[in-house]
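Exercise 7. Given the encoded structure of a 138-residue chain, write a plausible sequence.
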């Protein structure tokens, strides 16, 4: 199933032990296929390269480039598509909506209030990770 992960959710799933770790297993097993556009992938690259994640990366013996390549190999990259401005409070989040539309994703997983308040966009459900796990009955 194609899923657009908000950057913070994806990083948490990949680098931290805990309840989001199951999402990493879903990606490795091909249950969830992460979808990106160049702008969402660039944000992921930028954020995972920040110093605050160095210790977590070192714990697994990874560097940011390894993680980016790995997730690219498990995911799909789509051509950018313009959409109308939707999230006026944080227009940078519109790129996740655009990615979900172009990839025909089933879900957007986010912890961002501006996205979650929408609940859906173009029939694509916008949910928290815990809501996602409930919806797929895990």
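Solution.
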């Amino acid at each position: 199933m194609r899923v657009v992960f908000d950057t913070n959710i994806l990083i948490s799933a990949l680098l931290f032990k805990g309840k989001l770790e199951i999402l990493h297993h879903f990606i490795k097993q091909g249950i969830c296929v992460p979808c990106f556009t160049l702008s969402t992938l660039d944000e992921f690259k930028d954020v995972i390269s920040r110093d605050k994640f160095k210790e977590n990366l070192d714990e697994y013996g990874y560097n940011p480039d390894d993680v980016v390549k790995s997730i690219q190999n498990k995911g799909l990259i789509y051509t950018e598509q313009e959409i109308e401005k939707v999230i006026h409070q944080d227009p940078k989040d519109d790129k996740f909506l655009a990615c979900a539309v172009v990839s025909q994703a089933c879900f957007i997983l986010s912890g961002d209030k501006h996205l979650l308040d929408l609940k859906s966009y173009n029939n694509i459900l916008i949910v928290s990770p815990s809501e996602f796990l409930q919806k797929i009955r895990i």
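Remark. DSSP finds eight helices and six strands in the chain. Students should compare their own answers with the one above.
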